[in-house]
Structures are given as structure tokens and as C-alpha cells.
Sequence to fold (400 residues):
Amino acid sequence: MMEAGAATPQLLRRVNAHAVLAFLRTTDVATGTDLMAWTGLTRASVIAVCEDLLRRGWISELESFREGASQKGRPARRFELNSRAGFVLGIDIGAGTTTAAVADLRGTIVGKASRSFRGAEIPSAERIEIVDEACRAALAEAGTGPEGVLGATAGLAAPVDRDGNILMSQHFWRLFDVGLRSALKDLHGWTVLLENDANLAALGERWRGSGVGVDDLVVLLASERMGAGIIESGRLLHGHRGAAGEMAYLDMVEGVGSSAGIALLARDWFSGPRGKPRVEAREVFAAAAAGDAAAVAVLNRLSERLARIIASVAIMVNPEQVVIGGAVAESAGALLPGINTLLPRFTATVPRVTVSPLGDSIVTVGAVRHALDYVEANALDLEPAPQSPASGGPAARPER
Fold:
């Protein structure tokens, strides 16, 4: 990390604290030597950062020890993250439902709740109220209250630029511009970051899914409508107005023709013009697995469609891996053989294709990761929540 140069001492302290907290989040206990190796800081700088974080309540020091009975000198100092110094919220806001997940500072989900909206066109105040209700229910399950939240990220089914502004050029996207950040700031004092849901899916998949550690990764949210989150060289791509990864161009792709997703098409194609009883996508996949000829034909069509979509992404972005994610991911594994067979017909840059193990939690997992990044980067400006002697976590205070 940085120790010299034109940067101010305050900036260096923030960067170094971020680096130390990021490492402590990934390990149970770390010595000063461990932290030196990870951060590149000198021993003096590591100890200075740790002392600062100890005073602020972000980390704890364990009893020191010597590695060998005959070893001389001072015993090694050992530090651990105070994982319940506060919590973060990851929120997934769709057109019909919202889900809030509460995680400690290691990213462990400790509370979760979902609520449904009365419809897509409900008033902004009602949408905010339902999101807040889901957050409160998740916090109650986690055994804490609004005062324990250090940061929150909300994922929206709309393009969001780097400054958290929603692109308003389509009516559906405007439905998400409800003033959520200012409302939750006024209600609870929270800092709420907004991000596109597919972008958060990409962060979640790279953190805890099948794309761990992959620097060139595309995640397709593919259930009802197609959307893509793109990570290039380890960085999330937003584009000029946050619309990188929008899939409206599929209207012009031969053999695709729209951005309709797997679940929507499975239902429509299986029902067909003959007006069969409408079934859910998972039932179509189950019928195909049982040998139903009509269902098998639907899966074959879906495989070719997905192969064309993935090939178009591969041609433009050239990722190492493409992940099919969202609520349909569990079923979409049946499409992989067909996709992998067809891909070389459509592109010379064939990526590895997987399905996400995160299911419909993929956006909330990414939102938690995003919120943790905010907390770690701004730890010196945040105040850990007061600790409850009984629980070791943030003390619950009466709500006003």
C-alpha cells in the first residue's frame, strides 16, 4: 500500500486502514508479520494502523504468544476483526418484491427478509415504506436495530451511474427513482449506495460464487429479462451513464430478437399458441428431465438462444467466464451442454460458461459486498456501533 508520495497523510491513513481491514476480514487472526506481507507496509506503519483501529473499536488484540519455547524477544502481536462492530445491509429492489439481507463485517448473513409491492406503479412513499419494512424485519432477525447499520447498498433493475444516479430514459427505470437514499438517511441516518442489480450480481459472483477471483467476468441475470454485469481486469464497468451491460441490443441479434429471459420464454414457449395451461419455468425443466418431448424442444431452443447471447457478449467483451445467474440458475444447468456445443459456431473467443450457485440471493450477496467495500474504505470516518455486553454485538436502543 502507499507510504510515500504526493498523497496527504490523511489519505494514506485511510488507504492503509482499508488494506488492513480487508485482510482481517478474510482471516481469523493475523500477526503484524502477516499484515506486512499482505499490505506491503513497514512494521511501524502496520502497528500504527492497528493501534488506531484498536482505539476506534474496529479490531481486537488477542493474547500474544511466542512461536517457540526458546524464541527470544517480544512475542508476536495478534489481531482479529471485530466482526460485530456493526452491520451492513444489502437490498435487492425489483419491480414486484424487495429483499434485505443483514451481514456482519465478515460478510456473514445474519438476517434476511422479503416484502412484496402492491404493484409496479405504486407511489414512491409506499415503495420506500415497504423497503424500510423489509430492512427492519431483517435487522430484527439479526438481533440489532437501525442504529447498528454502518452502510447499505440497494440494487435496482435500472442503470445507475458511478455517482448513484438512475438513468431516466425509460419509463420502467423511472419507477426506481423514488428518493430512497434521502428517505433512509432521514429515517435512520444511513448512507445508502445505489447500484444496478446485474452489476451487484457480478460482484457477488466474483466474491462467493463460481467466479471467485476471475478478473474478466460477465454475469447474466437471465430469469425474466436479460441484464449483464461486467467485470473487466477486476473492475466493474458502468459506462458513461451506467448503462454498460444493458441488453436491448439483443433486439438486433439474429436468432434472439429480444431481451426476454429464460423463465419468461420457458413459460411462453411451452404453453404455445395451443393455449396449454400456463406453468412455471421450473416445471418445464422438470418435464424435460422426465423426457417430455415438448419441454425438451423448449430447452433446445433456449440453449441456442443463450449460446447466441453469450457469443455476442464474448465478441464484444472477451470475458474468461460467463455466469448464468438469478432465480432460474438452478434449472439453467440443463442448458449448459447445448450452449457449450453451439458456442464455437458463433464466436472464436469461447468463454467458460457456468451457472451461479447463489440462486436468487445473488444480488443481495453482491450488495453486501458493495456495502462492505464502503465501510472498509471509510472506516476512519465511521463510528462502530456501541457494544452490548451480553451479546458482544451492537446494543439495541429504543426506537423513537
In short: The radius of gyration is 24 Å. The CA atoms of residues 92 and 155 lie 5 Å apart. The chain has 13 helices and 13 strands. Residues 214-357 form a domain with the Nucleotidyltransferase; domain 5 fold (CATH 3.30.420.40).
